[in-house]
Design a protein that fits this description.
By secondary structure, this protein is α+β, with helices and mostly antiparallel strands. The chain is built from three helices and five strands. A hairpin with a 5-residue loop joins strand 3 and strand 4 (69-72). Bound molecules: FE2/S2 (inorganic) cluster.
């Protein structure tokens, strides 16, 4: 039975580079899925086609029922995977989804595009 507490949505369509040949979103999905998968998963990773922040690849979102949702851009798949997981764990453990500033890795502090209240 799943113990999922939150989902990291990752745009799999994000492209980078002058010719758009780099696909950081696809690589990020693979890296995060490898690290977050398994029995009793608390952090689910789900690919989405576009988060409408196409000029700031790669783009992710932290979401969970009853919590604020964050949209975060400029994720560097070669540098930020560990920090994304640390931030996701802090998000999962928070009651509201709002992660304290001092708990946010640099990518989170610099990359937040929006936060949206729960329904
Ligand atoms: S292509 Fe990634 S946010 Fe649109």
């Amino acid at each position: 039975m799943s113990e999922t507490q939150m989902t990291i949505f990752v745009c799999g369509a994000c492209k980078a580079g002058e010719d758009g040949a780099s696909r950081p979103g696809e690589r990020l999905i693979e890296a995060l899925s490898t690290r977050c998968g398994g029995e009793g998963v608390k952090i689910a990773v789900q690919s989405v086609d576009c988060l409408a922040v196409c000029k700031r690849p790669a783009t992710i979102s932290f979401a969970a029922p009853g919590k604020w949702t964050y949209v975060i851009g400029d994720i560097d798949v070669d540098a930020h995977v560990d920090d994304v997981i640390v931030a996701a764990q802090a998000y999962a453990e928070s009651d509201t989804g709002i992660v304290a500033w001092k708990q946010r890795p640099a990518f989170f502090r610099k990359g937040v595009i929006a936060r949206v209240p729960p329904l």
